[in-house]
Amino acid sequence: MRKSEIVKASENARFLNESNEVSRAFYTCPVMTKKLIVMGLYKIVPVFNPENYRKTDLSNLGDKFKWTDFSATFTIQEFCNVMGIENGGFQRESIEEAISTATKQTVLIKTLTDTTYLPWFSRANYNRPTGTIELVFNPFVMRAALDIRRKYSNIELDKVGKLRSFYAIRYYEICRSFYNTKGKFGNLPGEWHSFELPLDEIREMFQLGDLYKDRTNNFIVRIVKKPLEELNSVGLDFTVEAEIIRKGGGRKIRGIIFKCREIAPLKQIKAEDTSEARKAKRETNRDKIRMEKARSLPEWAQVAADVRAAAEDTDTFIPDGLMFDVAVFTEMQRRGIVR
After folding, report:
1. pLDDT tens-digit map of 233-261
2. Helices (H), the chain
3. Average pLDDT, the chain
C-alpha cells in the first residue's frame, strides 16, 4: 500500500453528531444540496445540546419550538472553509443553484403504518451582497435529526466536502452509523459492518425509482462500487468494501454488506519538531505502513482469528484498533510471514 493511501489525521477537523435515523433516511438530492444540509445541521445541532433537552419529549418537538429556532446562518466563505473546498466562481454557482432548489428537496420518513414525505427546509435565502446563506429546517424533520441521545454518527465535514458523489456521502453516513458495532458481534477489533441491505432497500433509501432497475450489474458498478472507490480515496480513518450476498450461493444478488476497517493515521511531522521527534514519527509511520501492507496479505485474516481465539482461551484482554494490528503483525513476524 502506498504511503498516500494511509490517512493523515486532521488537527482542525469539524464533526457533526448526526442521528442514525437521518444517516439511514430515504431521500435523494443534488450533491451540493446534501452538503448544505450537513452544514446546516452542523450549525444547529450544538444549539440543542443533548444536556439541554435530555428530558424533553421529542414527540412534540415540532410544537415546542418555533420554526425560527431551526434557522442556520453562515456565509459561503465559512461553508467552503468548513467543507475544505475552494471558494471559486464555479463553487458559488453550484451553491446558488442548490439554494434555489433547496425547498423542493424532501425526505421520506417511514414507520410501520405510515409513509410521510417532508421538505427538508421551510425557507432558503441567499444574500448576495454579504454572501450569507440562511436555511430554515422543517421542525418535523429536526425531530429526528436532533435525537442523538441514543445512537448517532460522527460525520467529519471536510470529508463530506471532498466527496463529489451523493451516493459516496450517503455511504459515508451509513457506514459511520454502524460504528458502535466495532469489535462486537463477531467483528474483529477495529472492524465493523452494516447489516445486510437488500438491493431494493438501497434503491428506496436513495430514491432511485426505475434507475438501473433491470440492470443489476450497472447498479452494482455505478451505485455501489464507484462511490465506494471515491469514498476510499479521500483520506478517511477507515476503509469500506462491499460484500455481495447471493441467493442460495447462485448468481442472483440478494443484498450487500458494507464492511469497514479502521486505518491507523500517520504521525504528522511539523516544522517545530525536534530531530528526535521527527525520527520517532518517521519510525512509527514506517511501522504503520508495514502493517498496512501485511493486512493486504491473505494470511492476515487467519492470523487475526488465531490471535483473537488465543486471547479468548486465556481470558486475555483483546486490544482494539492499532494495538490489535500490532499483535497480529507481531505474530506474523514470529511465523515468518513478514519481516
Report:
1. 887 888 899 999 988 767 889 999 999 98
2. 20-23, 31-44, 50-53, 61-64, 76-83, 89-101, 139-145, 157-162, 166-177, 199-205, 216-219, 226-231, 275-295, 299-313, 321-334
3. 81
Helical ranges in 72-151 per DSSP H: 76-83, 89-101, 139-145
- Tens of pLDDT along 285-329? 787 777 777 877 888 888 888 888 887 777 666 655 667 778 888
Tell me, what's the pLDDT at 169? 95
* Distance in angstroms (rounded) separating the CA atoms of residues 339 and 337: 7
- pLDDT above 60 for 86: yes
Report the percentage of the chain scoring pLDDT > 90: 29
Between the two ends of the chain, the Cα-to-Cα distance in Å is 16
Domain assignment of residue 152, given as a range: 9-162
pLDDT of 317 reads 63
Distances (CA, A) of 299 to 5, 9, 313, 335: 21, 28, 21, 11
**268, part of any domain:** no
The answer, yes or no, to whether residue 193 has pLDDT greater than 60, is yes
54 & 84 share domain:
yes
Q: Is 132 left (phi over 0), alpha (psi -120 to 50) or beta?
A: beta
> Which one-letter amino acid corresponds to residue 293?
K
**Rounded distance between C-alpha atoms, residue 291 and residue 284, angstroms:** 11
Q: What CATH number should be reported for the domain holding residue 245?
A: 1.10.10.10
274 class by beta-carbon count within 10 Å (0-12 exposed, 13-18 middle, 19+ buried): exposed
319: phi then psi, degrees, rounded to nearest 5: -70, 160
- The count of C-alpha atoms lying within 13 angstroms of the C-alpha of 214, restricted to the half-sphere facing its C-beta, is 0
Residues 79 and 32 in one domain: yes
Tell me, what's the pLDDT at 55? Answer: 46
Shared-domain flag, residues 147 and 228 = no
> What cell was used for 301?
485474516
Q: How far apart are CA 314 and CA 241, in angstroms?
A: 32
Instruction: State whether 45 and 122 are in the same domain.
Output: yes
Is pTM beyond 0.85? Reply is no
